[in-house]
């Protein structure tokens, strides 16, 4: 099902096989003046069919669903949305998960998801994650995403080179850009990075943009995964 939002509202889509879960999410999201649920899907096939042309701003995607699961749907949507829309907008996917799905979540992130949300997260955390991901700014900041990446750090660093300098993905980064990437991986916001490095927030935004461009990352989460995989950031560092 689809619905029409106001022009200045963030357009949200819900993908979950449980109708009551979707109804609860819709009630919370639609209670906010800047958010509006524009579509719902009960499985991955329906999500791909419905959302590919719709291109909502943010999708809340469940992992475990009958038929085509959320991982496959995330990969198909990310591929379909690889080219920017005529309006220049970028659709982003938040994976709904629990800690016992680590390996699946990592696959979803590599497929194109921009963040995580625990299914039992409080409503304010869900709303904050939607807004943050939509901005494309500090998507690593929501506590569920940061905790989950820390929880997954062993898997992320399993094949990391002994020396980060051996990873070609980092070769184009300047020393300052590496510093920014490390702080991003530690969950720092742009404001916090600016404070740590004694530079203006606008300068941090410039560095972050260059890091994403050089790494070919869709967003900060993708960049942080690269930081772990390359060995630039180690668990507990």
UniProtKB/TrEMBL annotation:
Gene Ontology molecular function: any one: DNA binding
Swiss-Prot/TrEMBL GO biological process terms: phosphorelay signal transduction system; regulation of DNA-templated transcription
Keyword NAD in record: no
Modified residues (4-aspartylphosphate): 62
InterPro entries: CheY-like_superfamily, NreC/VraR/RcsB-like_REC, Sig_transdc_resp-reg_C-effctor, Sig_transdc_resp-reg_receiver, Tscrpt_reg_LuxR_C, WalR-like
Residues covered by the Response regulatory domain: 11-134
CDD domains: LuxR_C_like, REC_NarL-like
Pfam families in UniProt: GerE, Response_reg
UniProt keyword terms in alphabetical order: DNA-binding, Phosphoprotein, Transcription, Transcription regulation
Top-rank taxon: Bacteria
Domain HTH luxR-type: 166-231
Protein name: Two component transcriptional regulator, LuxR family
Organism: Flavimobilis marinus
């Amino acid at each position: 099902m689809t619905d029409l939002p106001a022009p200045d509202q963030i357009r949200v889509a819900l993908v979950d096989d449980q109708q009551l879960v979707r109804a609860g999410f819709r009630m919370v999201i639609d209670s906010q003046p800047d958010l509006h649920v524009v579509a719902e899907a009960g499985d991955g096939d329906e999500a791909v069919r419905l959302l590919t042309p719709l291109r909502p701003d943010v999708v809340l995607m469940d992992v475990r669903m009958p038929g085509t699961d959320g991982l496959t749907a995330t990969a198909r949507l990310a591929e379909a949305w690889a080219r920017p829309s005529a309006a220049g907008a970028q659709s982003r996917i938040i994976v709904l998960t629990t800690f016992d799905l680590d390996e699946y979540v990592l696959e979803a992130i590599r497929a194109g998801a921009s963040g995580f949300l625990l299914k039992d997260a409080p409503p304010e955390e869900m709303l904050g994650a939607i807004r943050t991901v939509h901005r494309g700014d500090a998507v690593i900041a929501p506590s569920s995403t940061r905790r989950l990446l820390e929880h997954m750090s062993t898997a992320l660093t399993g094949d990391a080179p002994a020396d980060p300098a051996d990873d070609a993905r980092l070769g184009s980064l300047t020393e300052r850009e590496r510093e920014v990437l490390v702080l991003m991986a530690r969950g720092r916001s742009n404001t916090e990075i600016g404070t740590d490095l004694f530079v203006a927030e606008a300068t941090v935004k410039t560095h972050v943009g260059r890091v994403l461009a050089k790494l070919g990352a869709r967003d900060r989460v993708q960049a942080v995964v690269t930081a772990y995989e390359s060995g630039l950031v180690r668990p507990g560092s």
